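$ run holo --ligand "5-O-phosphono-beta-D-ribofuranosylamine" --emit tokens
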Amino acid sequence: MIGVLVSGEGTNLQALADAGLPIAAVASNRHDARALARVSVPSRSFELADYDSREARDAAMADWLRERGVTLVVLAGYMHLLTPPFLERFPDAIVNVHPSLLPSFPGAHAVEEQLAAGVTESGATVHLVDSGVDSGPILAQERVPVLEDDTAETLHERIKAVEHELLPKVVRELCAR
Ligand code: GRF
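-- output --
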């Protein structure tokens, strides 16, 4: 069973649901994440302000997911680094989707940074998650062209369209392991 972590829109969560993947629960670090209302499975937020530390928040979130039968965690636009109490509960079973051809352009502003750097090619990456920023082993990548008149919005939309195919495909393969 899959647990999905979200912080924003949740279009990748929607793609996972539309692909018929077995989503058991959705968690967020933000109570106002639009993604929380996307699918009708148990969903809740774990705001840092409600816990003594990031580790305590992550441990509570991991426990909540485990209680719902989650064995594979998908970060679908989740914008916080995960700490060891979370990572250790799901060894080799956390994946992230990122809007660049990693290891180039990790971090929260990848799309803007690619445009500023003048790259002609971008892409989407799905990778295993470790304690670094977008740094775990790469599982799949797909290239996306950057057009001359692209804005951050138009480029990100083009990348997301690729993510919505690539992420469900990789997650399906991981579920079959
Ligand atoms: C995606 O571009 C993903 O690669 C990045 O955050 C964005 C999330 O979009 N990590 P959404 O919330 O799935 O619409």
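-- notes --
The first strand starts at residue 2 and ends at 6.
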